[in-house]
């Protein structure tokens, strides 16, 4: 049985800004089902302290270098997985988001916040927090935990380290002055270590120093070794290609399943697929759109940032306004995108409805109501909504990249004949290509028998966490082998 310290900067149901929260909330539980002894470690943000339930102080004296840090112990909901919160009120107990203040500005002390988090991970990993537990594996996720593998690499008799990349575009870059202020070993400021074009990169720490690296889909693992997707780290990744692999994220079918989803108007599954329409009608009413179950409805739920191709959606909408379709969108992100998409929607308020903000229930309602789900992402390490969409019988239209390419099969004639088509895939993130895919989808929608075939193949897909957890256990084996 492996002992795994699973480190992340967000995890559901306590805190989430994106897909990492879904993953860190579900994967540890799935690993525990596979006989791993998993402990999840998170920063004790204000929101987490409020939601975590009963907490016990288990350590108030860690490294001499971490005088003001305490460890609080709790439990992840509906599991027996232990939760350790790194309690440092001056760093984490404040209003706002995990990485940014209420205006969306990065916290100015992020370097220090996540340095302390990583130093604590390292102290626990080497049993210096008096918790009487020493992991075999330290599993880190994204830049916020990228320093830990670097610190670990300097320890004698250390556990093996695994670094999962959820997104190369966020790198945790800080200046020399900030680095000096952290009081970390100077050896980390080196091109063979964490220095990256005259800054310190936490992401690079994870990539260079962990025993194995993985991304959240096989396609993205290939892509990041190229200039186009590598964000400047393609060279290092190519050198470490033997340590790099891709494991597709899973889906929590307890949360995302139209058969028992309590957040939607009418539950359904493949056999009762006709009830899906009631969700469309309910959402049409709720959003003030024309009520007619036969109008095809397109949906999006995403962070409104360039990665997601939100600009393509904004450009597509005026073209759709001439057709008999509806569009429902939910998201938040870059202000200019939020404003533009709202403006286009308001111009056609009988057909388009957009809500800016974060809304868990509306996300479920859109998945259940829409016929077609749009994900024209420029890059997508894995992507979760296309997998939710498949289960909800909401046919995804996706760009041929990353996890989207690994999870959706294009509705070509041959794939339809072989009953393996599940959606529409387009190759170039250009409006013309995207629009062609939307037209193909709307045409097929007019052929109910064919459409049902596509929906059926999608609903039958299984992306359960169980499959991914098995692959992670294998990865842990590989990490221990490389550590030697
Ligand atoms: P990313 O992590 O890049 O944002 P993913 O597809 O992996 O993309 O995960 C995004 C997650 O966040 C999904 O569970 C999605 O439903 C959810 N989400 C994104 N935006 C919103 C929003 N505005 N309201 C509710 N849920 C959202
Ligand atoms: C990142 C990626 C997304 C992925 C998620 C969870 O935020 O952008 O594609 O699904 O992490 O791994």
Task: Chart the SSEs and their pairings.
Blueprint: E1 3-7, H1 19-33, E2 37-43, H2 46-51, E3 56-59, E4 70-75, E5 82-87, H3 89-92, H4 110-125, E6 137-141, H5 147-152, E7 160-165, E8 173-174, H6 176-182, E9 195-196, E10 199-201, H7 202-209, E11 212-215, H8 218-223, H9 234-239, E12 244-246, H10 276-287, E13 297-304, H11 310-320, E14 326-333, H12 335-347, E15 352-356, H13 360-369, E16 372-375, H14 385-391, E17 395-399, H15 402-407, H16 413-417, E18 424-426, H17 431-445, H18 448-459, H19 465-483
Helix pairs in contact: 1-19, 10-13, 11-12
This protein binds adenosine-5'-diphosphate (ADP) and alpha-D-glucopyranose.
Residues 18-19, 22, 301-303, 330-332, 358-360, 363, 382-385 line the site of adenosine-5'-diphosphate.
Description:
By secondary structure, the chain is an alpha/beta fold. It folds into 2 domains: 3-250 and 465-483, Glycogen Phosphorylase B (Rossmann fold); 273-459, Rossmann fold (3-Layer(aba) Sandwich). 38% of the residues lie in helices and 18% in strands. It contains 19 helices and 18 strands. The chain has helices spanning 19-33, 46-51, 89-92, 110-125, 147-152, 176-182, 202-209, 218-223, 234-239, 276-287, 310-320, 335-347, 360-369, 385-391, 402-407, 413-417, 431-445, 448-459, 465-483; strands spanning 3-7, 37-43, 56-59, 70-75, 82-87, 137-141, 160-165, 173-174, 195-196, 199-201, 212-215, 244-246, 297-304, 326-333, 352-356, 372-375, 395-399, 424-426. Strand 16, helix 14 (385-391) and strand 17 form a beta-alpha-beta unit. Helix 11 packs parallel to helix 12. The longest helix has 19 residues, at 465-483. The model has no long low-confidence stretch (mean pLDDT 96). Adenosine-5'-diphosphate binds next to helix 1, strand 13, strand 14 and helix 13.
């Amino acid at each position: 049985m492996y002992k795994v310290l699973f480190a992340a900067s967000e995890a559901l149901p306590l805190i989430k800004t994106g897909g990492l929260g879904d993953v860190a909330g579900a994967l540890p539980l799935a690993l525990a089902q596979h006989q791993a002894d998993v402990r999840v470690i998170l920063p004790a943000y204000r929101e987490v302290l409020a939601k975590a339930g009963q907490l016990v102080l288990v350590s108030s004296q860690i490294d001499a270098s971490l005088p003001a840090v305490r460890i609080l112990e709790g439990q992840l909901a509906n599991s027996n997985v232990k939760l350790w919160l790194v309690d440092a009120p001056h760093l984490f107990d404040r209003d706002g988001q995990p990485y940014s203040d209420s205006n969306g500005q990065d916290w100015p002390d992020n370097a220090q916040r996540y340095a302390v988090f990583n130093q604590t991970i390292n102290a626990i990993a080497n049993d210096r927090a008096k918790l009487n537990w020493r992991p075999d594996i330290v599993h880190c996720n994204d830049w916020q935990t990228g320093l830990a593998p670097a610190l670990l690499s300097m320890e004698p008799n250390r556990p093996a380290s695994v670094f999962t990349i959820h997104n190369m575009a966020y790198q945790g870059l800080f200046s020399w002055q900030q680095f000096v202020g952290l009081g970390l070993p100077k050896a980390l400021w080196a091109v063979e270590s964490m220095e990256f074009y005259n800054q310190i990169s936490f992401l690079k720490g994870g990539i260079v120093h962990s025993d194995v690296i993985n991304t959240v889909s096989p396609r993205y693992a290939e892509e990041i070794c190229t200039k186009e997707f590598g964000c400047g780290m393609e060279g290092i990744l190519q050198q470490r290609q033997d340590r790099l692999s891709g494991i597709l994220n899973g889906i929590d079918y307890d949360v995302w399943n139209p058969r028992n989803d309590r957040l939607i108007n009418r539950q359904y599954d493949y056999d009762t697929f006709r009830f899906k329409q009631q969700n469309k009608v309910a959402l049409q009413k709720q959003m003030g759109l024309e009520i007619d179950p036969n109008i095809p409805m397109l949906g999006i739920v995403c962070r409104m940032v360039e990665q997601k191709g939100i600009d393509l959606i904004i450009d597509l909408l005026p073209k759709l306004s001439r057709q008999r379709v509806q569009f429902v969108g939910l998201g938040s992100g870059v202000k200019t995108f939020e404003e533009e998409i709202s403006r286009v929607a308001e111009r056609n308020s009988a057909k388009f409805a957009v809500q800016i903000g974060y809304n868990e229930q509306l996300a479920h309602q859109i998945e259940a109501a829409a016929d077609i789900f749009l994900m024209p992402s420029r890059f997508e390490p894995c992507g979760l909504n296309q997998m939710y969409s498949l289960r909800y019988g909401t046919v995804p239209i996706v760009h041929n990249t990353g996890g989207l390419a690994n999870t959706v099969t294009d509705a070509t004639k041959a794939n339809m004949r072989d009953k393996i088509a599940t959606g529409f895939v387009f190759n170039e993130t250009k409006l013309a290509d995207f629009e062609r895919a939307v037209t193909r989808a709307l045409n097929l929608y007019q052929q109910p028998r064919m459409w049902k075939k596509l929906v059926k193949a999608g609903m039958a897909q299984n992306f359960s966490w169980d499959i991914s957890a098995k692959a992670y256990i294998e990865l842990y084996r590989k990490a221990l082998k490389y550590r030697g």
